[in-house]
Amino acid sequence: MKDEESRDDVEVSDVIPLDLRRHDEVVAEFNSATPSRTWYHYLLIAASIVFAAVSVGFVGTILWNSLPEWAHHTGTLLGGNGWQSPTGPFGGLAMIVGTLETSLIALAVAVVIGLGTSISIVFFIPRRFRNIVATLVELLAAVPSIVYGLWGFLVLAPWMLNTVNPWLNKWPFASILFGNPGQEFGTSLLLASIVLAVMILPTFVAISREVISVVPQDLIEASLSLGATRWQVIREVVLPTARIGLFGATFLALARATGETVAVALVAGGVANTQFHLLYPGTSIAAWIATEFGEAQGNEIAALMALGVLLMLLNFGLSLISRALVNRQRRVLAVV
Amino acid sequence: MSDIVELEQPKEIGHEMREEIRRISDRHRARRQLRSRVMVTLCAIALAITAVPLLLLLYQLFRRGLPVILHASFFTQLPQTPTLVTPNATGGVSNAILGSLVLTAYATIMAVPVGVLVGVYLAESDSKLASLLRIISQTMAGAPSILMGLFAFSFVVRALHVGFSAIAGSFALAVLMLPVIVISSEIAVRGVPNTLREAGLALGAKPHKVSLRIVLPSAVTGIVTGIILAVSRAIGETAPVLLTIGGGYINAWKPLDPVSALPLSIYENAKSEWPSLRTQVWGIALVLVVFVFVLSLSARMWASRKQQAR
Amino acid sequence: MDQEFMSQVKMEAVEVSKAPDRGAAAMQLKDVAVSFHGRTAVRDCTFDISKNRVTSLIGPSGSGKTTLLRALNRLHDLTPGAKVSGQILLEGTDIYRGNITVTELRTRVGMVFQRPNPFPTMSIYENAVSGLRFNGVKKKSILDEAAESSLRSAALWDSVESRLKVAASNLSGGEQQRLCIARALAMDPEVLLMDEPTSALDPIATLKIEELMTTLKQRVTVIIVTHNMQQAARISDDCAFLLMGEDRAGELIEFDTTEKIFNNPIDPRTLDYTLGRFG
Hints:
heterotrimer, B: mainly alpha, 11 helices, C: alpha/beta, globular
């Protein structure tokens, strides 16, 4: 009829294409095991395949390139001292020791100070400032590592050389841990540990702050109502409740520390000599790859790739553990 | 009902025990309160210790870098090598600026389409493939960036015989950015309220149209935020480009040409024997940091403004 | 509202407060007011809480009952911008300005919260004795005896005796709340504050806890906030009725025995509330 035909208003079907099939057809489709595949679905799958391929390629390429070295020199790679470029033998022990030493020291420092920092942020800073502080921490976590490396090399290293090292060597048993390299080096494993600690601190604080702040308020009030002091509430209720997530934050910070490349390359001293004295120069796995790669050929590249595999295993392992812990933590709080 | 509890007479704590409890707790109280105050102070000190090195760093950055970047030539000139006669003739870093821009642009073009699509897929699918991809993306997001450099070197520089080039560096950066974009896109799409989706379906629209026309537009803010953050990370990374771009001292930008980059310039010149070059490096670092801060803050503001508008 | 039901409520009220005349005061409130950043939340609270009786704070939501309750163990100290004026006396000592530290106050005035909140990382036993541990009591014999005593007082001992080391989260909601009551009782407080303790529980668990309160008052003085009028009529000896005024601040309208409040209140607003005309 005429009136019905002259419509000015917009039909829904103009905006969204309607599914105008019969009802039983629609139900059949929804109930069927294989819903109709549209181009959209194929596009998503295609992208996922590309992503999977890239990831597999990522792991596979490095692994493949390192196989020659693994096939013949596994022992040297893992336990050998000294890196003779360009022919070998390529000993990775110095890098492994250096990575572990600097990362673990940095982690210890970062966790202790970081925990105190996040506790302060969550409990002692007035609510109005909390957002600003959170933003600041986020920004600091985003500073590129080369900038930390630069600062460490140009500012901290001279200070270490002139002030800290001589002071450290005054203590009676210092040389057991620190060694006694004299007035030669400002760059050292100790400096690398310090710079790493400064770098992973914002990361650790960001995560631990999050984990601590979601501990339910009424647990805190309940413990206060029993006569606990502020510190007792933190130490005996909040931290244990957040414990698993805090471990997750620790592993994540450690993962980050082990992967730092250029900062360590600039401040550790770049010497592939296996020793643990902190005031001597050293290197880490990632830093060594970065330093040596420029002029590497053939076998040496394979050896560097092998170091890359070690780094990958270490990092992925820590990452997986961290994630498992954070997920466990979420489940703990869900039960409360 | 039968399981209404039978109440016994509450067994009293003996009087002496009550007294003893009171004595013990009174005795401990002062010590506990002192310990609490001490520990609280230590935590506050920890906060200060965290702030100090970072403030020192920022201070040095501005103090040494600001004078450098105040000259236009810093941005427009190519680098020069100082000589004994002209020890301060460092030129500028136009090659590195151009290189960084170009690398980021190519990397973004490569990473964004795939990353966003995968993120959407992860948000909308419950399949085993989706769970696997999620684990992969989270693991890769934390991987050391030098590994991306190794990958790009093997694949683009060598296997594809392209050599050191912008495209190789971009590939490395794209692999770096990809997981970050995947994760943030998934979060953005998951953040769209289900009611929106249901409303579209209730109107009779097909599921994939609902995704495209209703869900995705709502998620755009979160997706863009994720891209901005990924970009800000990529600009500052040294290791992936160190192994792939080759460096250079001309204003190169073509994909197959070797290019320079800001972080690379810093790395190359930090150990220079020329004090003027070591000073210039602070200017480059300042530019990097300012860029990263601006991007991060914009991402945050963009995200929260759209939150309010909703 | 149903006439028959109301008369039943009134009869129950008479039953409960047939108790002898009020004795000494456990706590005394004089012109107590609480404000947040200058905005008054509750004011004009003047009444005495008598020992070994259950006093309920009733009124519609927003009338400041919980705010007032939390002032009694100084929980508002946690809230920046909170100010408590007036005088609150515990056995004659001003809890804000007198010779008593806040930690000591909280061992004498315990609290049970709306949602059961046992410490998730602790076992049942550890939860029960957590207060004692906080206060420095470490001797196992004392802790064991306190655990048994408080769990018996909370009518929980029989069901948990065999599994004391099990995590507290394994208990049902009602059991968890009784654990929280035991936890507070282990401190042997003089006063027990309860903030709507049964509102998150099912009817059977609610009933069990209500029965508990009739025996509890032999040990402690109970002050309970409840938005459930019938519950107040069932279990309390005295009632304080609060209402939000036009300035959006709660105020005390009337305080008297439960029997009087429900049968013969002085203020017409109290009558309106108990007749269910609002709230």
